[in-house]
Amino acid sequence: MYFNSLAAALQMDGHGAFVWSxxxxxxxxxxxxxYAPRRxxxxxxxxxxxxxxxxxxxxxxxxxxxx
Amino acid sequence: xxxxxxxxxxxxWLYRLSGSILRWLLPIxxxxxxxxxxxxxxxxxxxxxxxxxxxxxxxxVPAAVVALAGYYVMAIAGxxxxxxxxxxxxxxMRACAPIGAALTFVALVTGxxxxxxxxxxxxxxxxxxxxxxxxxxxxxxxxxxxxxxxNKALAAKACAILSxxxxxxxxxxxxxxxxxxxxxxxASIKFTGGSTxxxxxxxxxxxxxxxxxxxxxxxxxxxxxxxxxxxxxxxAWVRALANKGAAG
Amino acid sequence: MTPAATVTFCLRxxxxxxxxxxxxxxxxxxxxxxxxxxxxxxxxGLGPAPDTLxxxxxxxxxxxxxxxxxxxxxxxxxxxxxxxxxxxxxxxPQPLYFSALAYVLAHWxxxxxxxxxxxxxxxxxxxxxxxxxxxLAASLLLGTAVLSLIGGIGAALTVGLKRGxxxISLLILxxxxxxxxxxxxxxxxxxxxxxxxxxxxxxGALLCMSIALAPMAIAAGLRISVDT
Lengths: 67, 248, 228
Fold this sequence. Notes:
The complex is a heterotrimer. Chain B is mainly α. Chain B has helices at residues 2-8, 11-42, 57-84, 87-119, 127-148, 152-184, 199-231, 236-247. Chain B has one domain (16-42, 53-189, 196-231). Helices cover 81% and strands 0% of the residues of chain B. Chain C has one domain (3-227).
């Protein structure tokens, strides 16, 4: 560990704000890169599932037999 | 070889494979990113000229390197899809563009944050920054072209051509921007280019570059999975997957 | 297909494009008018001080030439796609490479050439030193040919789209940048009393390379656009 204390690590001789903000922005973008496609995948599967259920609901398997 | 080639063309196979790869690659990548960042930020000595602000290098350089490599990945995928008409290749190409744009964005933003304490301004029209900005434009152009086409198969072909044109042009753009900058270089700004980097700084940097490559791979696979599902939504295996997802 | 037949075919195609262009002289003047108007914007925006204008003149003239080329690029293939003659062209036995080259050459003759020839006038209006004017005209003549070829790629990729106008600028402006750098560099060099030759040589090299490669991309783009 290069820094002696947490405060020194946060401060970094006045450069702390720059370094930490750069890292936080990167964390945000990386999180988006990983999270966004996963969410799109989940949402798409849910949508498709609803679609399938609706199309089956409109035409339930038993309905044609009764007519 | 050819069976592997055909397997890569098969969407359900690729979907399952990417799932099993991501299951271990994604946690490892995220751990490596965090570990490398901690290593770089807390456990290395400061640069004797730039002080602590140089610590941004551990995200700035990897993001820039991978963003540039990503364009070539995109162009190669585009070439494969044009030549062999492989469906998975144009899905991969499509998935590259937003990831590359995001990484280029990271490189630009971190570079400009780094520039403030080092050069005293947020933005300098320096050769490398300008080239990265142009790279961002190239990526966004591909995204815009893809979105403009209604027919996604044609969109992929058009983007493949555009990315190949871009590949030919990137070296020219880089060289010309480099040359342009050397012509106009203002005397007040000095760069630390040419200085050798100490191993204690180099190893975490190389580690982070590797981690960013893994991140690119993960994001590529994640984006490809969504694209595969959307293109194959009428097939039985996707429908079965949707039903299973609802049940589970 | 014999080479001679291909040449005659391309010459006929070129003549057709030129005749179509010359039939509408007002439209032919539009890029020049645009050039003049944008040049007039700069003194209004930057102030009329001759020194400032003269210092910025190489860059201004080149950027305006680039923009007016960009705006005309959009229309290279549009009318031919709408009336179906582009589809005929794709079915023709002649290699599409040379046909694409003929289209681009016609576009350059109708825009870049005129722009290059008229540029000394605008250069004088901005107070560019007379010594730099030959370099400006030469660099514009060479550079706009490269721009037309690159613009042709963008036009071929977007011609099938309904809203292509804005998109084409986003696609091809990054590729225009090297031309801008060397073109304005040539004028700047002449202004500083250095030889402009090396810059013109680089522009010539860019032109050779884009003549070799751009028609292929244009041909591939046209095949996609006709499908839509």
